[in-house]
Amino acid sequence: MADGTASPKRAPFFARDRAWHPPAFAPGYKTSVLRSPQKALLSLDGTISEITGPVFGHSMLGELDNDLIHNFASPGESAIGERIIVHGRVLDERGHPVHGVLVEFWQANAGGRYRHKKESYLAPLDPNFGGCGRTITDEEGRYWFRTVRPGAYPWPNGVNDWRPAHIHFSVFGHGFAQRLITQMYFEGDPMIWKCPIVGTVPDRRAIEQLIAALDWGQHRADGCARLQVRHRAAWPPLDLLRKPAGRELRTHRWFRISAPSRKPRRRRPDPMSISA
pTM above the 0.90 mark? Predict the structure, then answer.
């Protein structure tokens, strides 16, 4: 590893479970029609570079990369919105923690607007919120970050389609073929079950494991409410290929933050703009 820790053993990867993941072609999600493959998929063996890289280390992170409340804020300022902490673990198909995983996250602000040059939603930009961050899992596969609860927003899919409040995740394992991109939703939001993107997931159990439950059991001294997130990705050797018992792939919990716990120390440059 770049920070001196031992590298995990490399091995071929699990194939994607296409009965669990949403299909590439879903007419109800209109932009998938042109983006989906038009021909049969090909199965290729992983190359050495795909199996052995990339390698991430904590030395590549900035001081506030996992603090979206402050990492884009001016000195003495902070993002507007309901403050939450998201924390969780990255597990493989065997339920083993995966360390050294780059976890990236991005989201709309509390009003439901992204910092994107093509964003057209009428909600105002928060000058102190960039909307993206990253962190790396520890030896037990754990990670956490601070942010504000994002707002819902309309999108041009149907006549009156809205995206429920959500946070995007990119979980980057120990190989280029291991990247998992997913979204996290919030408990009790009625728009989850009306969202055409959510509707592309074929198994209701998979959707339920993307929904965050408020965790009242753990509170910090700064009054933060905690959101627990777990990811289990298909990353172990092919000879262990099997469906995990219980399919506890992802569960989420969240909690509120009543006050900032520290002052921002620096302002980060304008983040990469990603929306969906």
Answer: no
